[in-house]
Design a protein that fits this description.
The chain has 386 residues and is of the alpha+beta class. It has three domains: 82 residues, no CATH class; 108 residues, Butyryl-CoA Dehydrogenase, subunit A, domain 2, CATH 2.40.110; 133 residues, Up-down Bundle (Butyryl-CoA Dehydrogenase, subunit A, domain 3). The strands form two sheets. Strands 1-4-5-8 form a four-stranded mixed beta sheet. Strands 2-3-7-6 form a four-stranded antiparallel beta sheet, with no helix packed on it. A hairpin with an 8-residue loop joins β6 and β7. α7 runs antiparallel to α8 and α8 packs antiparallel against α9. The structure holds flavin-adenine dinucleotide. Flavin-adenine dinucleotide binds next to β1, β3 and α11. Belongs to the acyl-CoA dehydrogenase family. It comes from Microbacterium profundi. It holds the Pfam family Acyl-CoA_dh_M. This is Acyl-CoA dehydrogenase family protein.
Amino acid sequence: MDLTFTEQQDAFRQEVRAWLEENRPVDDFEPYYTPTGLAQYKDWERSLIDAGYSAPGWPKEYGGLGLDLWGQLIYDEEYARLNLPERINKMGLLHGGPTVMAHGTEEQKAKWLPDLLDNTHIWCQGFSEPDAGSDLAALRTTGRIEGENLILNGQKTWTSFGVIATKMFALVRTDPAAAKHRGISFVVLDLDTPGVEVRPLRQLHGHAGFAEVFFTDAAVPLANVVGPLGEGWRIAQTSLQLERGTGRGVHTRLEHALNEVTHLARRDLDSASMERLGSLKAWTSAFAHASYALTDAMSRGEEKTADASVLKLRQSEIQTAIREEQLALLGGDAELISDVEPDAPLPTMLREYWHSRAGEIFAGTTQIQKNIIAEAGLGLPREPRP
Ligand SMILES: Cc1cc2nc3c(=O)[nH]c(=O)nc-3n(C[C@H](O)[C@H](O)[C@H](O)COP(=O)(O)OP(=O)(O)OC[C@H]3O[C@@H](n4cnc5c(N)ncnc54)[C@H](O)[C@@H]3O)c2cc1C
């Protein structure tokens, strides 16, 4: 693997770096689920959109920069290097939109992609249900065909960005008689459709951006089904693989987090924490190299299912270990909670810690990643499918 960037790539990095440094927001944002926070995120993202940086990895015909995987990595590294805010439309920009590009009709692409690119619509992902998470194909939300519509009934849960989203890409069962992984369809719907109810969910660390979404006889045009009816499981693999793949500057974010913690450690260092910090440095460096290796293999068109799972597994482990170290260094101070506002969000440190634990669950839990590595990486027998 040749890790030398070309002159053109270096020039692109300098261009992105200069733009981000000049235009980056100066203040920390409120959470996106508050009116002030949402306005701050939208303002910042408006400048990204106007500069053509809304979805740099999208093809030019859909408003992106048409970057290859290395160009995307450079952009993501620069974005993460400044620890800039996560995108409120990332479910759509990273997963939903590219799935529509891969499987949607020309009408669907023309209708949905421009509004997604410029945040006119915020998208969320409606896959998980109360009894369908790791075993996603156990989903029970139904889509009954009636004339030109699908009539949805059921419930989705753990919907990130659900409280601010206006559209959802969802998996629904359109043929209950078919085998478990068949008879599922992938559909895009408006969340203001009559019969759709979004209920906010507040997490343990105070974050209230999650939602559960209920459908009661909600009529969604059949024209909103992406790909053939009953082929939703296959279509959803595009979205799920994108979720587990490389990118989003994760290795740079890990390095950033470790630097923050190392900075704290300078105040109060003992040999045990020095040793742990040294290990974390070794892990984050190895993680960065593994991210480069995966980018390299994928840009040569290789399929790397097990490697993507190894990265996802390591990412959550390193993230949690960094935040555990941070809590250990801060001791009791990390846990100070306001007695004036007991419902106020937890202090940032504690929030970061809990968020790192969530990384062991979303986009496939730690145990599921291990199963994938065992099957795809080691060639061990697949779990029997019910
Ligand atoms: C921060 C966050 C954001 C999320 N955002 C979204 C979203 O936007 N949209 C969406 O649809 N979903 C979202 N999810 C849901 C997420 O996809 C599920 O939580 C996840 O798939 C796990 O499903 P579950 O919670 O039902 O747990 P379960 O699948 O019930 O798992 C419970 C435990 O059993 C283990 N387990 C399950 N099956 C196996 C197996 N075969 N072998 C070994 N161990 C197993 C799991 O690893 C876990 O430890 C989000 C979750 C989190 C934490």
